[in-house]
Each structure stands twice: as structure tokens, then as C-alpha cells.
Specification:
Elements: H1 14-21, H2 26-39, H3 41-51, H4 59-69, H5 81-94, H6 98-119, H7 124-143, H8 146-162, H9 170-181
């Protein structure tokens, strides 16, 4: 019997790729970006947001969040919290835009909240995700200039108010977070 020596593999990182990318000329770099663009819808959305080529850079991210947090139950589509969260994180990586990020976070909670108001109780994990995002939204709103906070505060209050009959401690957490942030 022969023993095959295991090759030691190190974790590949951006540094490994960067050392090759820096040697690419303009044409090769453009081809690489084009290939990445055609590779996935997610890459396209990222690049559209990064380079501001879309009239409404939030639209495609909101579409993803809406489909994930308020799915078509009549088509048997599931709630996909992690995919919706990823859309927000991808937007934040693509564009340094605290207003846009706050909009997406609040939209996430609005979609999930509206879904449960319409269709009834979900589960603890669902409400934990909504509570985490709501808390993140209040922090984001507080970090914005005061002149930009009012509309977001109104929407957070509306979410809290509409959740009054929802269980799992969801409503209580929303109240705690809202009144801690905006006494």
C-alpha cells in the first residue's frame, strides 16, 4: 500500500488574489470585472450599487428583502431571514450610505412585521431576527443627523404600534428598544 502525503493547504485570502490582480493591465482588469458581473445576479446588484448606475440603488435590495421577509405563501415560498440580512450587508459593503442602510433595515422589519400581522404568529427565531434588526435600526437612526431622523422614527413607532398583539415578547422588546432610543 502506498501512503499519499497530504499537501499542506493554507487558507486562501484576499492577499493571495491581490498579489495576482495588481499585475493585470487595464484590459485584463475590465475583463475580470465583466466576468464577475456575469457570474451572478448578486454581483450585478453589488456593482450597480457601487457605481451608482441604477436610478434607485435600493430597489433591487428591497425586492430581495420583500421576497424573503414577506414571501408569497400561496406559492409555498419560505421566509428567508439570512438571505434578507445578506442583502442589507451587501448593500452596506457596496456603498457607504448610512441613510440607505437604515432604509433597508427598517424595510426588513416592516416586511416581517406586516407578514406576521397579516398571517399570524410565526416562531421565536423569526421574532428574534426582527428584534435584532429593529435594535440595529434604532442605533442607525440615532447616528444620523437630527434633520434625517424624523421619518425613520415615525416608521419605527408605526412598527411598534402595529405589533401590539404579537406574542413571543416581540412587542415588549420593540417598546423597550424604541423608548430607550427615543425617550
Amino acid at each position: 500500500m502506498f501512503k499519499v502525503a497530504k499537501r499542506k493547504t493554507s487558507k486562501l485570502t484576499w492577499s493571495n488574489v491581490k498579489s495576482t490582480v495588481v499585475d493585470l493591465d487595464h484590459k485584463q482588469l475590465l475583463k475580470l470585472v465583466a466576468d464577475m458581473y456575469s457570474f451572478s445576479k448578486e454581483n450585478q446588484t453589488f456593482l450597480h450599487a457601487r457605481f451608482g448606475v441604477d436610478d434607485d440603488p435600493l430597489e433591487s435590495f428591497k425586492k430581495t428583502i420583500d421576497e424573503c421577509m414577506y414571501p408569497d405563501v400561496y406559492s409555498n415560498k419560505p421566509i428567508q431571514i439570512s438571505k434578507a440580512e445578506k442583502a442589507i450587508n451587501n448593500y452596506s459593503k457596496a456603498v457607504s450610505d448610512p441613510l440607505g442602510e437604515t432604509e433597508l433595515i427598517i424595510f426588513f422589519v416592516e416586511c416581517g412585521n406586516n407578514f406576521t400581522v397579516k398571517f399570524g404568529d410565526i416562531d421565536e427565531g423569526f421574532y428574534d431576527a426582527l428584534n435584532r434588526m429593529y435594535k440595529r435600526a434604532t442605533k442607525n437612526v440615532l447616528s444620523l443627523p437630527e434633520s434625517k431622523q424624523a421619518g425613520f422614527r415615525d416608521r419605527l413607532e408605526q412598527i411598534m404600534t402595529s405589533a401590539s398583539g404579537i406574542g413571543w415578547g416581540y412587542y415588549d422588546m420593540l417598546c423597550d428598544d424604541y423608548y430607550s432610543a427615543f425617550p
